[in-house]
């Protein structure tokens, strides 16, 4: 069985590729010419060097493919709207069209829980309305989800949407490293009390769900929220990290109104100077840091057999051993 993976050089995609290869699947992965493909070389996959916005190249790449995992997306808080639209929307459409031509048996779309809105969540189900927020990344993920479901409803393309929360684990270059740098330098400050639940998922647990989404017949046409079953607050998570690393627990905090004013000022300053990277504190980070992010994963458990087998504590211990 030939499996095609976009975003295979990224955090989630590389873990997925390794798992599928170990399970005996034949892999074909899409990568840009500038991507580091050393991990893919080690597992002897077929690599197609092309851009997802190149419709002809994508169509050629999918010949003979049976399952597609779409991980590729431009991510971040400091995105160009044009670039995000081109990759996250146009790229997804190109891939969906190619899937129709290739008559693939399954299209698994990796989305994000952010599409359910930048608001407090208390056991929010996967069928809750998507909420546009004005955030470029989130809004393009919403549009890409709509595209995926349109192809299911109009053309009967066998699709599945999987929405992870904050993914952490070995190889993460964004979420956990940023937090570790602040903690190790004694610069971490809680925004608010830190008592809000986080929508965390350890990478191996996410891969479990993705693998099942690619083979379970009942998954077709369905949307799945995916987080760890064990719920922890922001303060719990930070203290776990400190205890595992045997470093001092942070105690400082900033009230949210102060953090919002500071973030707004920093963003304005960075944009005036046309900086390519966002400041250490942004309005989006402040907002997310104060939200209760608790999502209903009962459908994922019942239909995909998901069991969140590695706890957040265990996942952190595995991850921090490699730091």
Describe the structure.
The protein is of the alpha/beta class and 323 residues long. It has a domain at 2-168 and 199-230 and 295-309: 3-Layer(aba) Sandwich (Rossmann fold). The chain has twelve helices and 13 strands. The strands form four sheets. It has a seven-stranded parallel sheet with strand order 3-2-1-4-5-7-11, sandwiched between helices. Strand 1 (2-6), helix 1 (11-22) and strand 2 (26-31) form a beta-alpha-beta unit. The chain is globular.
For CATH, the homologous superfamily of the domain at 2-168 and 199-230 and 295-309 is named as: NAD(P)-binding Rossmann-like Domain
Instruction: Sum up the overall morphology in one term.
Output: globular
Characterize the main sheet.
Answer: 7 strands, parallel
CATH class of the domain at 2-168 and 199-230 and 295-309: Alpha Beta
Radius of gyration: 20 Å
Q: What count of helical segments does DSSP give?
A: 12
| Poorly predicted parts | none
SSE series: EHEHEHEHEEHEEHEEHEHEHHEHH
- How far apart, in Å, are the first and last alpha carbons? 36 Å
The helicity comes to 40-55%
* Beta-strand fraction estimate: 15-25%
Question: Which fold name corresponds to the CATH topology of the domain at 2-168 and 199-230 and 295-309?
Answer: Rossmann fold
Question: What's the mean pLDDT score?
Answer: 92
- How are strands sequenced across the largest beta sheet? 3-2-1-4-5-7-11
Count of individual beta strands = 13
Secondary structure category: alpha/beta
CATH architecture of the domain at 2-168 and 199-230 and 295-309: 3-Layer(aba) Sandwich
